[in-house]
Amino acid sequence: MAVFHRPGTLGEACALMAERGDAMVYGGGTAVQILEKQGVLFASDLVDISGIPGLANIEETSSGVRIGPMTTLRAVETSPLVRRVTPLAARVYGHVANPRVRNTASVGGNLAHGDYRLDPPTALLVLDATVELTSSGGTRTVPLREFFVDFQRTAVRPGEIITAVEIPRQDEAAGSWFAKLSSLSANDWPCASAAALVTGGRRFGRVARRIRLGLGAVAPTPVFTQVEVAADAGADEAVDAARQAAEPLIDPIPDVRGGVAFKRHLALVAVEEAVRLSWEERSDARGFFRDRRRRR
Ligand SMILES: Cc1cc2nc3c(=O)[nH]c(=O)nc-3n(C[C@H](O)[C@H](O)[C@H](O)COP(=O)(O)OP(=O)(O)OC[C@H]3O[C@@H](n4cnc5c(N)ncnc54)[C@H](O)[C@@H]3O)c2cc1C
After folding, report:
1. What does the alpha-carbon distance between residue 85 and residue 236 come to, in Å, rounded to a whole number?
2. Residue 295: pLDDT above 70?
3. Which of 34, 164, 233, 267 could bridge across to 132 with cysteines, CB 3.0–4.6 Å?
4. How many CB atoms lie within 10 A of CB 198?
5. Residues 269, 146, 262: CA angle, nearest 5 degrees
6. What is the CA 196 to chain-centroid distance, rounded?
7. Ligand 1 geometric centre to CA of 144 (Å)
């Protein structure tokens, strides 16, 4: 049985992580408790960071939002600040599991969990988010696009604690959507998921629009790609370009939710839904009026 610690400061937590060889951070505990019940938790010590002041804050910064690691997924989903500054992120956090899990699981624990099926990384990839990691040796920042290094392996090194996730402000005129396709219950992990963000276009004097795509559950890690499409293209053309860009990244792991061929097909359906709806939102005249209302 692991020894449980409840440090009151980040410095104490980092010292514990450095001193104890096999120490693990205890965030919301939703994953750690399952591992413990299954008898596969091999940590010598658990460092519960919920008592450290300031780690559950959501703050506006000059470039977007900064979210503390102990912020619950539900707090991100319902935050008026996150909904205003980065609506795609708020939407995706609202799709994780069910309210019971979202009320307990933390932003830091979700990313550190490193599962290839996680929902939030799909949006954080397209939004170009970064993760702040702190240890007794100092602080470093890792782009989300470099965070998932292999199957269930992240960039978090032994002794490090995720201390913030920073998400740049979402372009107000961007179209965005998150498609999550489940083959068991609606609240289950996804069989395939895709977040899309469509930016650029005629309004800024540009001739092309950029489609950014983050995919979950379709490969051993969450994956990212992007493609440019002529601004006057139709939604079908945009979808075709996005599917072509996504296809080489799709490398599904067969399991109870589906075999390889089924998951490959579903991944492309998720891409189509996310891109079509983002593209239409970006092209929609109502989008223009909505943006004007927001600026007043
Ligand atoms: C029934 C169920 C359904 C689920 N469905 C989904 C789903 O559909 N989509 C989805 O995205 N997720 C889903 N999840 C996963 C859920 O999102 C994770 O369990 C949760 O996010 C983990 O967060 P936590 O704070 O509870 O982490 P914990 O259980 O506390 O920790 C998980 C891991 O992260 C490490 N850790 C925690 N905090 C930090 C930190 N600040 N710094 C460094 N390491 C840290 C821990 O050491 C541990 O290795 C589901 C979970 C359950 C139980």
Report:
1. 29
2. no
3. 164
4. 28
5. 20
6. 12
7. 16
DSSP-based helix, strand, coil % in the chain, nearest 5: 40, 25, 35
pLDDT of residue 290: 43
Say what the pTM is: 0.93
Q: What is the overall mean pLDDT for the chain?
A: 92
Across-strand partners of 72?
Answer: 106
Residue whose CA is at the smallest distance from ligand 1 atom 14: 97
Residue 140 has pLDDT above 80, yes or no: yes
Would you mind telling me the total number of residues written for the chain in this entry?
Answer: 296
Amino acid at the residue 1:
M
DSSP string covering 228-239: EEETT--HHHHH
Alpha helix (H) ranges present in the chain?
10-19, 30-37, 73-78, 80-85, 87-93, 99-104, 107-113, 120-126, 235-246, 260-283, 285-295
Tokens of 163: 């201390």
CA distance 226 to 156: 26
User: How far is CA 238 from each of CA 1, 120, 187, 245, 267, rounded to the nearest angstrom?
Assistant: 53, 24, 29, 11, 16
Best residue among 48, 72, 100, 106 to mutate for probing ligand 1, ranked by most atoms within 8 Å of CB? 106
Q: Which domains does the chain have, with CATH numbers?
A: 3-168 (3.30.465.10), 175-295 (3.30.390.50)
Residue 86 token pair: 């980065």
- In the chain, the largest separation of any two C-alpha atoms, in whole Å, equals 62
